[in-house]
Amino acid sequence: MNILVLGAAGMVGRKLVERLVRDGTLGGRRIERMTLFDVVAPVAPEGVPFQVRVAAGDLSQPGQPERLVADRPDTIFHLAAIVSGEAEAEFEKGYRINLDATRALFEAIRHSNHGYTPKVVFTSSIAVFGAPFPDEPIGDTFHRTPLTSYGTQKAIGELLLADYSRRGFFDGVGIRLPTICVRPGRPNKAASGFFSGIIREPLNGQEAVLPVADTVRHWHASPRAAVEFLIHAATIDTAPLGQRRSLTMPGLSVTVAEQIEALRRVAGDAVAARIRREPDPTVMRIVEGWPQRFSAKRAEEFGFRAEQSFDDIIRVYIEDELGGRVPA
Amino acid sequence: MNILVLGAAGMVGRKLVERLVRDGTLGGRRIERMTLFDVVAPVAPEGVPFQVRVAAGDLSQPGQPERLVADRPDTIFHLAAIVSGEAEAEFEKGYRINLDATRALFEAIRHSNHGYTPKVVFTSSIAVFGAPFPDEPIGDTFHRTPLTSYGTQKAIGELLLADYSRRGFFDGVGIRLPTICVRPGRPNKAASGFFSGIIREPLNGQEAVLPVADTVRHWHASPRAAVEFLIHAATIDTAPLGQRRSLTMPGLSVTVAEQIEALRRVAGDAVAARIRREPDPTVMRIVEGWPQRFSAKRAEEFGFRAEQSFDDIIRVYIEDELGGRVPA
User: Fold this and answer.
1) What ipTM score was computed for the predicted complex, to two decimals?
2) Which of B109, B145, B164, B297 is the mutation pick for testing A, counting most A CBs within 10 A?
3) Is the pLDDT at B114 greater than 80, yes or no?
4) Closest CA to B252 of B209, B220, B215, B274
5) pLDDT tens string A83-126
6) Would you state the torsion angle of the CA atoms of residues B147, B153, B159, B163, taken in this order, to the nearest 10 degrees?
7) Where are the domains of chain A?
8) CATH architecture group of domain A2-177+222-248
């Protein structure tokens, strides 16, 4: 089979590609060809027993989506997006990439030759939800009232995905990713960055800043779980989804205090002591609008699975990023 | 004040203009100028003590929205849309008018001179909802899962309206209209047409066809109530809306049997006998996906009001369309 990964140079995209290369198959079918696309050229995996094409470009440029679907990929993973903070800072860029390019991709598929109906896996986000929230966990029928332009663009993507699927132009599945934790790499300036930072930096011998109260609760899954969601979404039977094509992915609802306790259990007191509390009113205000917990019943019924404890989320980071060992 | 009405030649648009002309004011401010726009030139009202400009055109054409907002209307009523059946039959036309033109209008406002933040009243629809529904009435936090391209386009319009309002580009209010009943005029081919037809045709001495079982339940409001919703939406204080800018309008949930009973009470047995039952499996299947009743609590808290009985809905038709008298 032929697979197209859009946003293949991003953190989750890279891990998805690694996984597909390792498996060599998707849903029991042998992978024969893969195209990796991003705004910067993704690194081609080495020693791969099938053809890998790497391409860089702007998905919102006329003709780009058409070129990418010209060889009729069976499965398209659409992870390409301007992240939340940037889409908020740059209004036009956010709409151009997150809305226009997504729609252009869907249109390119629609205009392809008759009978081409690929599987399209679209990464949405819990940013489609916005406060005020109910006291109980947010269920599968709760409305999407995003509080950012990014969340708005993802919610629109979900609506288009459903309409194009209903029309039979492709077979779409949208997955609303939890906050991905522990993100590997250097600290970034995203308002949510500290959720990963307070685990990652201490494990790497560095100090981390905690800008919110440790009573703050949020919804997490590991990068490994995110990749598993994508693979699973690409292989489930979509008929039972009906017209409701997007699903809130399972995750783990924990407080910051519970994150820190898990870090202490997994890595010891000395590591957990590397967290410095420095309340930041701006971050605190932003985080107040974020969802805290979901009841992802529908996704669970479809077989999606996430971590059951934050200890496991930390262990995934140690295994996948630190070679299984906590540095002294 | 200066008012722009988009979709002014449509049934609700015409009635809105009549009402504004009669009032001469909106929210206590004297109307000084009005622009009526539609794809066919709206009829200019006569003897009006203020300036009325009439224009015909395609809102999706480049430059058209910019021309319409150039004189900085204080309030914009955006009723222009391709109706449900047509948007389903003509995929591209529906997206072009219902999505692209709406977005182009919003963009034209955003690109206007600094400090121009008009009130924008956007007509959405209960078509943003799609089955399966809960057993209880659909509440204000139920998700939007449209089952038509029209409903998809309206749901996207709601999301854009909220994001542009949040950004401060304008001050938007979206109102999800119930099915409007009794629609005046000739029978049309809309799947929902019979809800009005079984009242209108008998009152006009003609036979009406009922294509569904009389147990079918649906959500109605009169054209007069729809105009009142629009006026009210244009004048409410939007601060308490927060970021949730679209509201399900109140309406009346009745079965077809209850509609017919009301007709009998208001107009007599002979009139009610003009309904012929001729089940149509296609219409029956379409209607199954439609919502049956809402709990429009939030709109009611904001002071929106609809009819309390179907007898009243019939009387509105008789008063407004038949000069207050039922033809023999």
Assistant:
1) 0.96
2) B145
3) no
4) B220
5) 888 999 999 999 999 999 999 999 999 999 778 999 999 999 99
6) 170
7) 2-177+222-248
8) 3-Layer(aba) Sandwich (3.40)
